[in-house]
Design goal:
Two copies of one chain form a homodimer.
Chain A (H helix, E strand, L loop, with lengths): L4 H6 L11 H24 L6 H8 L6 H4 L4 H24 L4 H17 L2 H13 L1 H27 L9 H21 L5 H16 L2 H6 L1
Helix pairs in contact in A: 2-3, 2-7, 5-6, 5-8, 6-8, 6-9, 6-10, 7-8, 7-9, 8-9, 9-10
Chain lengths: 221, 221
């Protein structure tokens, strides 16, 4: 008996991630295409100026198809934000596993954020405009920022436990500070991509890390 | 011979600021009213959603009157930005005159910025949205940021000269860092005014100042 590919993939058993079957692959492809085209159009025309029809036309699918993948246009932003949270989640895994300094994981997270935003300042600007102009979008942002903040705080707590970061401030407060600095870096770069964000972010981080370190360590650095 | 008021004010001589005559006072009042109503409407409806007619109606003047005071709607944002630059200018004057630590002037500048934005998060959001969405507005922002950065750098250079701030980084680079942190603070507060920006900004500043101080001073603090 010959198994066709999708069936073969479906019998891999429960609890194991299925290799994407043909249909799932097709769905994932369309979803990705809609997402990519949406971001491209947000950057080009602006978030509010882009209609769902613009997106489906650019992705070469019927208009109604969009809603099989995203309940609303705002959900594109939510997915984008979710990807950012996933990056912090992976950093926490790294921080738990690393034998080196936890603070290096934080540093990598910073340059990762800059690297990500380097890809398209227009996307970042469109996303900021959408957040600044739309209360429900802002509410979603707050939820994601809270999740990220708790993850960041866990990383910072690990670094505190190892004596890499000063202990007189709570991990959550330090995580909030880190987020504020992140936001300023991404924002100011997206407003003026000609300026070297990478260079500035290094300066900011070096200053911030100096403040984060316990006075004893700071003196030695 | 009896001089009429405008003429009397006009003969005060060159190089001396004229006491505002009745006509000038009237003009200044209308200009201020247009400016205030514009900001109020930006916060309420959004920058792009607010028309010049909305503004003139709210300010109770004819539509054409707007253009006697502001060439375009964007100029409202420029005036707003100009007021921010003026605050930094005054801080530089203070830094030059003070007998106390120059770093206190910087600290006051930080809490001033927070106090200012406390007045209306909606205005800040509308302004960010306008900058994120509109290239000419962004260009103006860059010019103003450059002016502010140079002023900040002068304050920082004074503090370096007095040994209050580390000298291994250039004043301009430290000024850029300061602006990035400012932007992050104002932005994150405008997105979520419920959170205590004042408290967070204090944490950020304490950490940043710790990094700014020369290692010797930092250790002692």
């Amino acid at each position: 008996m010959k198994l066709n590919a999708p069936y073969a993939s479906r019998i891999s058993g429960p609890g194991i991630a299925l290799p994407a079957g043909r249909r799932e692959r097709h769905r994932a492809e369309i979803r990705q295409r809609l997402f990519d085209e949406a971001l491209r159009l947000f950057a080009q025309k602006g978030y509010f100026e882009t209609t769902v029809e613009d997106i489906t036309e650019a992705a070469d699918v019927g208009k109604g198809t969009f809603f099989n993948y995203f309940p609303t246009k705002e959900h594109i932003l939510a997915v984008y934000g979710g990807k950012r949270v996933a990056v912090v989640e992976r950093a926490l895994d790294q921080a738990r596993a690393t034998k080196g300094p936890v603070i290096d994981v934080l540093k990598e997270l910073a340059s990762n954020a800059v690297g990500q935003s380097n890809q398209n300042p227009g996307v970042i600007r469109a996303i900021y405009a959408a957040h600044a102009s739309c209360a429900p979008v802002r509410l979603e942002l707050q939820k994601r920022l809270q999740v990220s903040r708790r993850l960041l705080a866990k990383i910072i707590a690990l670094a505190q436990k190892r004596g890499e970061i000063r202990r007189d401030l709570t991990p959550l407060e330090l995580a909030r500070v880190t987020q504020i600095v992140f936001m300023g870096m991404t924002m100011s770069w997206s407003m003026n991509p000609d300026s070297s964000l990478r260079k500035s972010s290094e300066s900011v981080w070096n200053l911030l890390l100096f403040g984060l370190c316990a006075p004893k360590e700071a003196k030695g650095s």
